[in-house]
Amino acid sequence: MEAQQFPSSAIQGASTGVERMLENLPLMIAGVWSDERELQLEATTQFRKLLAVERSRPIDVVIQSGVVPKFVEFLKREDYPQIQFEAAWALTNIASGTLDHVRVVIESGAVPIFVRLIGSPCDDVREQAVWALGNVAGESPKNRDLVLGQGALIPLLQQVNEHAKLSMLRIATWTLSSFCKGKPGPPFEQIRPVLPALERLIHSTDEEVMTDVCWALSYLSDGTTDKIQAVVDANVCPRLAELLMNPYPSVVIPALRTVGNICTGNDMQTQIIMNHQLLPCLLNLLTKNHKESIKKEACWTISNITAGNTDQIQAVIAAEIIGPLVHLLQTAEFDIKKGAAWAISNAVDGGTDEQIKYLVGQGCIRPLCDLLVCPGTCPDPRIVTVCLKGLENILKVGEAEKNLGTTGGVNVYAQLIDEAEGLEKIKNLKSHDNTEINEKAVKILETYWMEDDDKPLPPGDAASAADSSKERKLVSQLSGHLEMLLVNPPKVEIMFLEKGL
């Protein structure tokens, strides 16, 4: 019996729109269910093209047509790699849809077959299987853990070798980043084997590979000090610092995020990344014509360094970063000002008296005072608290100088705050709705300024112990990093590349 042939109109449908292709849907369905392998391949190819249309992809129509189980069946056709490839591609595009669409692919039993196909002798089939698994894993932590539970990681890592084509390296790296991301994160011991591969891949010069490696590292380093240590031990710090000077913002942003995460760790972990010329790189990001999102991330990273020990604060001072920070605190968009305020306040909180005097000399008082209007110039009450705390620590140094008799019996920093209109703003904060803010304002006024009856009040507890480095970093991380809406997330899982069309 002669095989039924598709009319030319069906072939042309790919270039004349979804509507034209849908006119041939019954014929396409019949072809998938045919016993003729040529018809099966042709029909599966048409479905793949239909699903590859970027706009108005009729995923639901394809699912409702009942062909998904046949596509999964075609994945098993080791004797027919062409149909394996087309079926895998069609399922990949279905898995690029909604959570419900991904669920259809999972419930069809495709995931374990895709895992097996990572070892296919056909390059195209291998790549498409890896891509499909990345789409499934990237949809949710539950799906990610399901894919990892099917044993996908080790065979995928085996594909990342010196003989791999660039196309495979790009897809594999993106899929590895999907395996690492999500909250809660994957079990760390399960995902730890990815680190040596990421260390090799980070030396790539390909923008896509570098970008996705850095995103993967940012996910792995976003956590406790033991996770940060695992990333540090992978010997990626030298390259991460280099990538901060990369010309591609898509690379700089996740590299900077990873560096910032490392700096939320303990002082030793922070020092390791600092030892690779980190501070000159951060200075460049603050002062050159970079995107606002990059400057915001740079400020957050510096805030975690200034939350460290006095030697690390001194290193920031020596790198001449304070001046640019103060400038951003005065002139930048509010999201950048937040990070700069944290960086200055942390330095004041943990710095020596001499370091605090240097910060004052760089002009930090006025911009800190300017942020004491909430709502107004500062829509975030937490930043008002940060600025108040910074000013309070500055006042403590001024009071100590006054008590030493070196300033003519005057707290010169209290005078500077008054001249910067800070005193009036602090008084206004006494009636702020936020309890922490109004109590802090009252304490500062009672300690460093006279009440209306002109009777000086006792100095109060002007020497409360400074927060530990670890505590300052935790506050900076929670109120800075996690509150910042970060742009340019990793590559969107929905990918439509018309290969060979």
* Mean pLDDT across all amino acids: 88
**In one word, what is the shape?**
elongated
Oligomeric status:
single chain
Number of strands: 0
Helix proportion range: 55-70%
Specify Rg, calculated over alpha carbons: 29 Å
CATH architecture of the domain at 1-163: Alpha Horseshoe
Determine the strand fraction and express it as a percent band. under 5%
Major pleated sheet: none
Number of helices: 32
| Amino- and carboxy-terminal Cα gap | 31 Å
CATH topology term of the domain at 1-163: Leucine-rich Repeat Variant
CATH superfamily membership of the domain at 1-163: Leucine-rich Repeat Variant
What is the highest CATH level, the class of the domain at 1-163? Mainly Alpha
Which stretches are poorly predicted, pLDDT < 50 over at least 5 residues? 1-15, 452-467, 478-501
Structural class category: mainly alpha
GO molecular function: nuclear import signal receptor activity
ARM repeats: 66-109, 109-151
Pfam families: Arm (PF00514), Arm_3 (PF16186)
Keywords: Protein transport, Repeat, Transport
Task: Tell me briefly what this model is.
The chain is mainly α. It is built from 32 helices and no strands. Mean pLDDT is 88; it is low at 1-15, 452-467 and 478-501.
Textual characterization of the structure:
With 501 residues, the chain is mostly helical. It has a domain at 1-163: Leucine-rich Repeat Variant (Alpha Horseshoe), CATH 1.25.10. It is built from 32 helices and no strands. The protein has helices at 8-12, 18-23, 25-32, 37-51, 59-64, 68-75, 81-94, 99-107, 110-117, 123-139, 141-149, 153-159, 166-180, 188-191, 194-201, 207-220, 225-233, 237-243, 249-263, 267-274, 278-287, 292-305, 310-318, 322-331, 334-350, 353-361, 365-370, 381-403, 412-419, 422-428, 435-448, 469-481. Helix 3 (25-32) crosses helix 4 (37-51), helix 28 (381-403) runs antiparallel to helix 29 (412-419) and helix 28 packs parallel to helix 31. The longest helix has 23 residues, at 381-403. The two termini are 31 Å apart. The relative contact order is 0.06. The model is unreliable at 1-15, 452-467 and 478-501 (pLDDT under 50).
